[in-house]
């Protein structure tokens, strides 16, 4: 499963796919595995460890994301 997540993250960086799009993809795959887990014990065991979002995917691959500084614009300065 780690190969799958590594591929997804490399695909994201190679093609410039947004974090939101990858998060939706990972969430969809989580829901799909959850649905399929009702029919198989092996898939049920796999589904328990499958992350729900992009942060879980990064943790599973043990990828360190860069921390960016965030700036907030004052509403009166628009």
Give a short overview.
By secondary structure, the protein is mainly alpha-helical. The chain has helices at 2-15, 19-36, 41-49, 54-61. It has 4 helices and no strands.
Can you walk me through this structure?
The chain has 78 residues and is mainly alpha-helical. It is built from four helices and no strands. It has helices at 2-15, 19-36, 41-49, 54-61. Helix 1 packs across helix 4 and helix 2 runs antiparallel to helix 3 (41-49). The protein starts with a helix and ends in a 17-residue tail after the last helix. The model has no long low-confidence stretch (mean pLDDT 76).
Radius of gyration: 16 Å
Largest sheet: none
Counting helices, strands and paired strands, the structural category is: mainly alpha
What is the distance, rounded to the nearest whole angstrom, between the alpha carbons of the first and last residues? 46 Å
Total number of beta strands: 0
Helical content band: 55-70%
Mean pLDDT: 76
Number of helices: 4
Task: Note the run of SSEs as H and E.
Answer: HHHH
List segments where confidence is low: pLDDT < 50 over at least 5 consecutive residues.
none
- Beta percentage is under 5%
Shape descriptor: elongated
